[in-house]
Design a protein that fits this description.
By secondary structure, the protein is an alpha+beta fold. The chain has 4 helices and 13 strands. A 7-stranded antiparallel beta sheet has the order 1-11-8-13-6-3-2. Strand 4 and strand 5 form a beta hairpin. The N and C termini lie far apart (about 55 Å). Pfam families: 2OG-FeII_Oxy_2 (PF13532). This is Alkylated DNA repair dioxygenase AlkB.
Length: about 190
């Protein structure tokens, strides 16, 4: 018995400010959201002169990597309103979603280590279609402190505080097609 407890004792703690909930949406809502995202005019992710393999559509605002600043994007579609209401409830009374990023990851596609732009405040991610490993890291002396969250289909995470500002995150190549909707609040100007 003590060997089993020792295994759990060595599990790294999750980053402060990271919150996760499984089964945030029903399978029916998941199917509807995937169909809506798949019908969007998704474009390869543009990172300055580079083009990513994932395909995206931004609403409300988008970050232009060539100009290095926020730009207005198309208005948030009405079909997202019921989900936004649920995400804002998950985030608490002061939560106001102002930016949405819909992403399609084909098999073998991931996203490298990064932090979301400082103009964004709290970040919520709704995982759809298949699971992924949502990895976190931050410097710890000459090594990295690491944590991996298994983001299951229909689950949501919220990054705030240190998980948002001190930790980088990435998703390794996914094993099956996956969609996500990222909901962001904005830093007060």
């Amino acid at each position: 018995m003590s060997e089993q407890l020792a295994l759990f004792a060595n599990k790294p703690a999750s980053p402060e400010g990271l919150r996760y909930a499984a089964d945030f949406v029903s399978p029916e809502v998941e199917r509807e959201l995937i169909a809506r995202i798949a019908a969007l005019p998704l474009q390869p992710f543009q990172f300055g002169q580079y083009e990513g393999k994932r395909r995206v559509a931004s609403f409300g605002f988008r970050y232009d990597y060539s100009l290095r600043r926020m730009q207005e994007a198309n208005p948030i579609p009405e079909w997202l309103n019921p989900t936004i209401t649920e995400v804002e409830a998950f985030g608490g009374p002061a939560t106001r979603i102002r930016q949405i990023l819909c992403t399609e990851y084909d098999t073998g596609v991931g996203i490298g280590w990064h932090r979301d732009k400082p103009q964004y405040d709290r970040v919520f991610g709704l995982s759809l279609g298949s699971a992924c490993k949502f990895r976190f890291r931050r410097p710890a002396g000459e090594k990295w402190q690491r944590f991996t969250l298994n983001a299951e289909p229909r689950s949501i995470y919220m990054m705030s505080g240190p998980s948002r500002k001190e930790w980088e995150h990435s998703i390794p190549s996914v094993e099956a097609p996956r969609y996500s909707i990222t909901f962001r609040t904005m830093v007060d100007q």
